Amino acid sequence: MGLGDYSPGSIWYYAPNKAAPIVFIILFSISGVIHLYQTIKHKSWRTTALLPWAALLMISGFAVRLAGAYNTDNLAYLIASTVLMMSGPPVYALINYFILSRILYYVPYLAPIHPGRVATTFVGLDGACEILIGQGAWRMANSDSTDAQRQLGADLVTASLCLQAALFGAFGLLAAQFHRRATKAGVLTKDLKTVLYVMYVSAAIITIRCIYRLVEYIEGWTSSLYRNEIYFWIFEAVIMFINTALLNVWHPGKRLPSSNSTFLSRDGVTVRKGPGWGDDRPWIITIFDPFDLWGLAKGKDQKTQFWDMNDEELEILRAEKKKNKRGFLKGLLDPFHLWGERGYVVKYFHKVKGQERSSGGATQQVREVGEIQDGGESTKNMV
């Protein structure tokens, strides 16, 4: 294993280890297959479906690295391996966002913000991280590039890692706020505690890995962190395997409901079926206003507190939601929900017509009052 010793002709600087990639390919393959089985068994597609994908990214990265170990002068292997290895951990971070979102759907009355906004906000920003990584990693790994180009790549990756760190800071605060509320309300069940603690450990692991990469790219490709392979195996391979194995042992899909409509009553015991805490706004608007600041200002969220309704009211609400649900294709073709029976255009014309009717009715009433008054005056004159 390279410990900082230069290997002539190697674009990696050192001679990459040939045994370690095989070990981690096997380990991540086992973990990924188990995750796939667990996701199918617990029907937790919306929460944990990306776990096998994250494992596959890591496996692919190790496989390309193994090929590069036998072709140390081939730049393509270095670039591909770097991009793949940099893409895996953000997906694991993404899964933590989905887990927190599902927890907030399960205990909606203690959610600091709308559960759906947790997913859209953090997932969107995490997507930006992936783009920055993709654009930066290949530039930085390309030894044929100029120093300025490689530095640009390192800067892009650094920016991505800083954004990831900020995201995890905000994520941690959000999770801690919910945890405090749930503890105070006495609804923190054993399963919820387990999921939260596992999520905290997972987030800490990914943060440590993020810090390692951040320091590595700040110091540059001539640093000891970059040129000593042992650091890669410890802070990239080992701790990320601990992360995926942790989620195997305490799989969140086993401890959280598979549906967003299932929620825990305020007594902390009764599990009920609700309409789900939906966001009726067009999906494209949720991207530009993920926290629905306009809705919060108008008190819109106060109208969606279904968790305090009785069973009959919930049944009516579920039926209404099912009736008004828009299909995926309609949402894609009409992202602003302008058309259709409940579209903004139709609502606007209905509103205008309603105002015209009200205005017309008021005018008619004024005329009738005027006629009555005129009739009264005529009667007086006759008398």
Automatic annotation (TrEMBL):
It is found in: Membrane. Residues 357-366 have a biased composition (Polar residues). The chain crosses the membrane at residues 20-37, 49-70, 76-99, 119-138, 158-176, 197-215, 230-250. GO terms for cellular component: membrane. It comes from the Eukaryota. Residues 357-383 are annotated as: Disordered. Keywords: Membrane, Transmembrane, Transmembrane helix. InterPro entries: RTA1. It is a multi-pass membrane protein. Pfam families: RTA1 (PF04479). PANTHER family: PROTEIN RTA1-RELATED, RTA1 DOMAIN PROTEIN-RELATED. This is RTA1 domain protein.
